[in-house]
Amino acid sequence: MTHLDALEHRSVHILREAYANFRQLCMLWSIGKDSTVLLWLARKAFFGHVPFPLVHIDTSYKIPEMIAYRDRLVAEWGLNLVYGQHQEALAAGRTFPLGAVDRLTCCGLLKTDALTRTLSGEGPRFRFNHTSGAYERDPNTEAYTGVIVGARADEEGSRSKERYFSPRSTRNQWDIGEQPPEFWQQYKTEFAPGTHVRIHPLLDWTELNIWQYIARESIPVVSLYFDQGPGTRYRSLGCAPCTAPITSTARTVEDIIRELETGALAHVAERSGRAQDAADGGGLESLRRGGYM
Amino acid sequence: MPIVVVGHVDHGKSTVVGRLLADTGSLPDGKLDQVRELCRRTSKPFEYAFLLDALRDERDQGITIDAARVFFKSALRHYVVLDAPGHVEFLRNMVTGAARADAALLVVDAREGVRENSRRHATMLAMLGVSHVAVIVNKMDLVGWSETAFAAVADEMRAFLTRLDVVPDAIVPVSGFEGVNLVTRGPEMPWYTGPAVLEVLDGFAAAAPPADAPFRLPVQDVYRFTRFGDDRRIVAGSIESGTIAAGDAVVFYPSGKRSRVASIEAFHAAPRTSASAGEATGFTLDEQIYTTRGELAARAGEPAPHVSTRLRASVFWLGRAPLVPGREYHLRLGTARVPMRVEHIEQVIDASTLTAGPATEVARNDVADCVLKLDRAVAFDLHADLPDTGRFVIVDDYEIRGGGIVREALADGDEAARDTVLLRNRKWEHSRLAPDLRAARYAQRPALVVVTGPRDMDRKGLAKHLEVRLFDAGRAVYFLGMANMLYGVDADIDRSLASRHEHFRRLGEIAHLMLDAGLVFIVSAAELRADDLDILRVSVPGEQLVTVWYGPAGAAEIATDLAVTDAATLDEAGALITDLLTARGVLPS
Q1: Where are the domains of chain B?
Q2: Which pairing describes strands B306-317 and B367-380: parallel, antiparallel, or unpaired?
């Protein structure tokens, strides 16, 4: 069994545990490479199907290719996609850089707040109707109690502290100092009313593992990850105003794997193109304690 | 390879890891300078340990608080360090890290020698089943690189590990501060000719999943995604040990139901006919049987797992409130989850000294030998035979509070009935109609409803009322009076207390037939006892059994799924039971 096989099997096991234990279960899909691998693993776990909704937080500032790619896979794979959006903040213009707020406030509103409210059901949910081919208001406003997330431990400091099943308080907050033990493939699948559990099947995967798996399984990813001429590509995807490409001529998945294996990017943080990390003092800790992915 | 670094507080675990990261060139550019700069700003002397403290509150508290993962690589392979902390109150984090690790580095201070948590962590490593253990005698620079000082600590540690049946793969003298004998050997200790820590790690073989052992797969779920147009009925789970192939006869425990593997299923993978330990897989069966999450699949012809409601186990406890006899907890073993009580604490072992003594409770961070009593039988192995299916966790108040390994399966008095059921299921002639087909036809799931209560309550009246009520609603339902049994099925046995066991065994068999026929089966029984229910549970799976107490409030002698007070009319009582059956998925909503 290869290392990639072992990672796949553990992730599949975790997804099945989540499905067996959480009635109100969803998976966050950011459209990026990690959560798309996670989506693929869900199809592995459930033999071609994804038996729970995929939740996407649409800040409305995502790079347009991301939304086009999302809607294509939703149709092709018959996915149950639900998106949430902070419509008040958008209407009031409380965004960066157009509005009068800084990057972190913008992230806090359009991502963290929108996520919290979409998960709890307080905020609007829009569900793709495969018959009409359009998004419609989702009648289900029940809070999700299990939320599957594609966070990886090697991505940045605070994510290395996560459990596979990580409890969040009633206010969606994360208490890093008081985490439950987790061993022998037994996870925190029981939870007090009002709290929910974040589930992290990709915790042990590295950036290289992700690309190796994308290559092995031929998983379609957004073209933004590849250099399409100007000698730059995106390594991590986010909102257009706060995400910058890196210098790289990798044009294919194999190029990216070679780039990572040869260490060409070894001394550049994966999220170096994400401006909010720098604004949060070099890590995502403050954002993540408050509920950020 | 996942590794864990454990040991007493301040013995230098984080420094050792910081050194392994820095000296193998595994740090991102500028990280070292960033931490040096931070130390300068906060007027603290730079330490390699700070490299790991990626989170602010760690630096503030001055102790590592979680099993944070960091990565480094040797020429041979990649390592992930689950940096387990040494502070005693964070034992739950240490357990979390160590349970995932293939190897452990146990760090001991050359000046202080073996301390409480050195022993405690060694004890936990032995219980958690970490394959390789290397002892690091750290801070050799502070004892003048003395061979005598090293030998004293090494002997003390080796003696302690021997009592735990742990043989260390190596004992290495190092200095985390000076970076000696971690990645490269230095000239400071010419008397030491063994390998450096990284060489020891590179020498470890990753534990291979036990593919040659008896087949065990805890059933995670049985999937049938008809709503996506997929009619396959797939038993899904991860193989803990052994190998399964299409055509193999499989037996599910504790039910003892048996079928044959028709196909190994996978999405976007080359077709295959077998699967082995370590794989998260799924298979279809050629004869449809009722099995469910919580059962343990084994292969016919291989040693079967144990099935019991009583077991002797070594337990470690992490909960703030002590583990006490009598209180209800939940035990999770494989995918089974059952209510559990501690019947008896045989002895509590002081993890720091390994001396044992009698006790009435198991305090936080203690290890004890206990007898556990479960509400329902589960299937398991002895830890000594098959570790992965011979261990469990204990849940209290939504949290995993402890873990344990099974030492012995104990008798619980229901072995004879269980053996009968196992034999019956092994010989069972399967109908061509799968249980799902009957469930779809009748729009209900089969269930046994037992109405009990004091002798003077009209249990029979309620049971008959329920039968009519469900029948009128279009359900397939049958009521059986006790008299109908006593003069027929039970005609050959007397009514003595001694025959009570046999009476309930037969009732369980009748229920099994009725449920197999897809019916909701209603019986009433006066003053039902817990051990009567235990016998019924041998034949009827827990999720198909619904118990109702009908009588004065608070007078129930056994725990039931529903209590209806004598103040309720038959109509009200019938409605309450119907609601429960709907909530349980027996009746359509």
Answers
A1: 2-202, 216-299, 306-416, 431-583
A2: antiparallel
